[in-house]
Fold these 2 entries.
Entry 1:
Amino acid sequence: MTTETATATYKTKVTAAFNGAAATYDRLDVEFFTPMGSRLVERARPRPGERVLDVGCGLGATLLPAARLIGDEGSALGIDIAAAMIEEAGKEAERQGITNVEVRVMDGEYPDLPARCFDLVLGSYSVIFLPDARAALARYADLLADGGRIGFTSPVFTKDTFPFLPPLFTDLIPMSLLEHLPEAWHPENLHRQLHSWLEDPADLTAALEKAGFTDVEIHDEPVVQTAPSGEAWVTWSHTQGMRLLWQHLPEAEAAALRERIITALDALRGEDGRVRFEVPVRYVTARVAR
């Protein structure tokens, strides 16, 4: 399989997964994307009147808080490769009465947009999962007006953890299950192909500078993820990136993994009955170097 074919297959599967999950994505009383998106907006500091692009906007966890801050004089465009996500994001903006938002179906790796038409590009848990994110960063630099900024979030990647999940889950997912995934999605291959440049802050800074950015700031802090129960978290995981793992597991092994995760998470319940655990998140901001 050629690199181009593999990339197209990857995007097709991701698009299908998130189209299928759009109706319940981030809506099952499991807190993660909303607090992370709000925190990214706090660190990126959109200003009144600015033009904002949110890459991989999902249901608007980053897009909508940014749109509120830029006000009616500003404009916010959310793009996502999954049409169902875009439809739901538009409905959510309407439900919240936010009128300065536009949403479009678009491949975030190759945004078909005019040069220098934004003041801020955002991407929460989206940009870094593109097949060639470093090349995409340079395209985002071209979209920014002079002095424009970028802000995005990433997992805190390490070689010994499963790349789509907090460290807590590394011991819960037997490595033998990964044989059911396409080889390109094995953690070591994902790390080498997609994430190795994100692990070391020096490498990440160098990648941003090569893409045309300066004043890079990297800040790691946890998001406290909460869920009503272990079972609720597992149900929620079927609407996120882990959906790709669930889809490839045989029925018996999926059932065993489900019970293992539910048991481990229910052991973390607090006095109020909710499950809580920390998810390490990396917040990155930079300014275009012109």
Entry 2:
Amino acid sequence: MLSKNIISCQFLVHLLPLLLLLLSKHADSAGSIVETLPGYPGNLPFKLETGYIRVNESELFYLFVESEGKPRQDPLMLYLNGGPGCSALTGFFFQTGPLSFNTTDYSGGLPTLLLYPHTWTKSASIIFVDEPVGTGFSYSQNSEDYYISDTGSAHQLHLFIRKWLKEYPKFINNPFFIASDSYSGIIAPIVAQEIFDGNEGGMYPYINLLGIVSGSPHTDSKLEDNSKIPFACDMALISDSLYEAVKRDCNGNYIDVDVSNTACVEDLLAINKCVDDINNQDILLPKCDLALPYSNDEQRRRSLREASRKLPIPNSKTQDYFCKNFEYILSYIWANNETVQEALHVRKGTVKQWYRCNLTLAHETYIYSVASAIDYQRNLTERSMKVLLYSGDHDMVVPHISTEEWISTLKLTLDIDWRPWFVNGQVAGYTMKYSKNRYELTYATLKGAGHSPTEYKGKECYNMFERWIHRYPL
């Protein structure tokens, strides 16, 4: 009996290194903990992990911030940025993440970081993902992977989240939500449909999908483009007489215009003269130079130098106006820093240049295969789920009236009619609520916000989300 025990112990001694190796490999695959980041003093006061999830031959980079509340109970959220091709760091720094750039006293060098008081990670764990391939730090060894469509992108995200949950099994039972911004509004309902279908088909792990949250949700290209002219009239950017003329001459259709319809063409040219110098992201803000790089590195460096000369560096002496693009320039400086990439555990040599939004992907390799996602949204009304849609009322990229129009086509029951909602006793926007059996849709506007409302009204957006996610009325 004693000899058998000795043999068993010897076997375990030899087996232990193999077990440790397997455990260490699993730990590595589940992401690397980031305790410090260049630009932030001391240890991060929240749990951040970064890593890659392999989907076929694509390596999708992600940042995962665990909820600061009750991570084993709070919602788990997959956060998708727009573009297509805008990096996960856009959501992490400018929209719902826990950090922001210090823009008030920047004087050169590596930007410093501040805790963001209105982060959604107070109430949810968030996965920020660089998707599709070619976005941020995501890459593939197969060049064909960079040619991806709307449906292909959604399918890739569906596989991504199932693989991610296998790596983080403790979150499998958490309520799961898909959050989207701007262009990814067309991707989110497709991903949701794939998840439901996958669950019903027995795919593992089962995803506890409860809803969708979409800001400035791109949904129907034609509807959004057509809505820009009535929006311009509502906001006094064009005259009533010009609007009446263009409605009559163009028969309410302002895209794909027949060039032989000279009256319509002349009306549209007159409208372009009125709005061409307007910042369509937020019609109240100045129209600043684009802080987006070109594909050529030298062109990119030159464009950033020229843009930085034109954009004011805000400080106590500069109070005239602030160009949001200045924040974006800081993100290029920070994310392309070698020590930053080491801290984020970015694989060396996989991405030559980080872009906040990859214009090459958006203009050359991405396949825009879904012109309208309204049918996907309509199909989801047959499911048990919660949806929150929110729009900035000064956004002329995806005007709020276009979102309100397609919502009206879903044939839902109106539970709460248009009314104001408040933050600290002040009107933060307006809201409506709809339902159909076990489906609920809450729609809200953010007063004074532009495209991607979280970038303009962070406090109000967090209050909106926090109430909604805990089933309180706005």
